[in-house]
Amino acid sequence: MTEESFVSALDFNPYLPVDWLIALVAICALITLFSLWRRGRGTLLRGALMALLILMLANPVLLTEKRKFLDDIALIVLDETNSQKIGQRGETALAAFEELKTKLEAIENLKVETMTVRNKTTSLIGEEDGTHAFANRGEALRNISPGRVAATIFITDGQIHDVPDGAEIHENEGPLHFLLTGDPNEKDRVLRVVKAPAFGIVDQPLQLVVSVEDFGLEEPVEMAAVSVNLDGEPIAAGLARVGDELTLELTLTHGGANFVEIKVDPLDGELTEKNNSAYITINGIRDRLQVLLVSGEPHMGERGWRNILKSDPSVDLVHFTILRPPEKQDGTPITELSLIPFPIRDLFEKKLNDFDLIIFDRYRRRGVLPSSYLHNIANYVKNGGALLEAAGPAFATPLSLYQTPLSEVLPARPTGYVFTEGYIPTVSAIGKRHPVTGLLKAKADADKDWGRWFRMIESEALGGETLMTGPSQQPLLILERSGDGRVAQLLSDHAWLWGRGFEGGGPQSELLRRISHWLMKEPELEEEQLKGTIAGNLLKITRRSLDTAPATVTVTDPDGNTTQLVLSEGEDGAQSGSVPIQTSGLHSLDDGIRKSLIAVGALNPKELHEIRATTEKIAAAAKKTDGGIRWIKTEGIPDFRRTRPDNRQSADYWFGLRANENYEITGYNRQAMLPPLLALFLALSFLCIGWWREGR
């Protein structure tokens, strides 16, 4: 900054009011004119003396300002978004940034400001908006007067997604210059997702629409090989015609997040393979879970099961209660019975595989279900079905379901003894780590005991995991995987006491709901889980397992970089840890046994849709402000000249830096043009000359 003084204005500070001064001027002018008309001697001397007196009364003042000239500002915008990480662009941009900054800092009366544009990596919803270089520039210039901006210089590949329209570009903010990384003759293949559903119904086909486009090829390619992976496993492959849309069909296999990866074979020598893949997250939902509830006899807990299952809008419940077993013969005519026959053939033979869960509630062998149908149920479980037995006292008798073909899949064998004393159900050590029982709470005050139950069928656990125990640490709740299916046994029919609030009650609804949904393979209730969540700029990893050994998870980001993370044990039996997020995209997690995927930010960011360096998006902005565009690799960094605002701002070999000559007024001086002593001397001189002239 330099400081100089400039004469800015001539001002008057009269000793008399302006009206009086004007009247005095008029009187003096009339006297002078009258004296001239009468040809009086000394008229000019008298007129000069009156003019001098009037000038003394007007008191002319010369104003002098002290100005501090402000440095102009050159803003350098460095693009470090994902497209700048391709090839050598990042190194080229950093080298150009350092050279440009050194050049500009050597110019007098010029201040250099810098800023960096990066992609956000924690956005979870929607697609990233790409490179917002102009929005970031606006933030940087918010507190700077546009009149001080010498120029804005972008170091970028030209892929800027918020370039304003011509009418929105303000020329008073200086020229916009662009230094481009990359090569103008790059070739690239891009896979685009044209249409993809956000959710799909499990086990029902859905469609995706993609397209393959090639850029920069002298000889176009007609076909390209496309493959599809679901949760990391290949499911389909085919050929796509380049430039046309391709419809792909796939079927989701489970509820929750399903990660679909679509790949196309790369071109020889193409710019990058990052945009040869597209990732889609599809939320799998089940279309109306079918549940069959068979109650062996009416009892207090029957309505509890029914209410819990009916309260779930995603469950279609078929419920039968056996009120009249075959051995009951009381002579009542069939025509007077209001009951309907039990459709056992339809349920247990024709439509058995349509059900997602079968529940036997206090069922006992009474000749209603033949052994062949129970054998069908055992095969149904082994082939992927789900079975829940809520045992009653009959389980300890010869009428037990364990005395049927279902013994092949039931994890507990009755001893023949029934506990009938009060006890508080307890979550076992392994149950505290299982999602079904690990987070159960009786009420807000977790330290309070649950209410007592008064019956439990003593059994020997032959397999599975015992999550809850009763008296003498005997198994109360057992979960087991049998073949491809799942089985649960609740060895008591007193869960309804919790629902009634007996002795404070307990989490009856939550427990039964969790058991049912675990049986129906709800992902959130799997005992072996490995998942990631986003917490700010951290990727938080949670591992839930029945194994207590500490785990090490390998985190692989979309660029192929790996991080080894040792998880720490938490209070709820889950192990957790976190790593900083370096880039957006699909991250894979691997603990040596399980693998999982987590989407960070946008899976298909706009930043990678068009990745070739180009002048198309920025040409209009440069032309509107008379800015320049140069390719760094082939043309290098240009020279820089200080230019006047109304002159040309760029040429083939130089970029202009507008010299705005802005200044601040730091002070001013007022200096009288007719000092009092000089005025008195002149007045006396005129009087003396007049007297001398009159005396001749």
TrEMBL record:
<protein>
    <recommendedName>
        <fullName>Glutamine amidotransferase domain-containing protein</fullName>
    </recommendedName>
</protein>
<keyword id="KW-0812">Transmembrane</keyword>
<feature type="transmembrane region" description="Helical">
    <location>
        <begin position="44"/>
        <end position="63"/>
    </location>
</feature>
<keyword id="KW-1133">Transmembrane helix</keyword>
<keyword id="KW-0472">Membrane</keyword>
<dbReference type="InterPro" id="IPR029062">
    <property type="entry name" value="Class_I_gatase-like"/>
</dbReference>
<feature type="transmembrane region" description="Helical">
    <location>
        <begin position="673"/>
        <end position="692"/>
    </location>
</feature>
<feature type="transmembrane region" description="Helical">
    <location>
        <begin position="20"/>
        <end position="37"/>
    </location>
</feature>
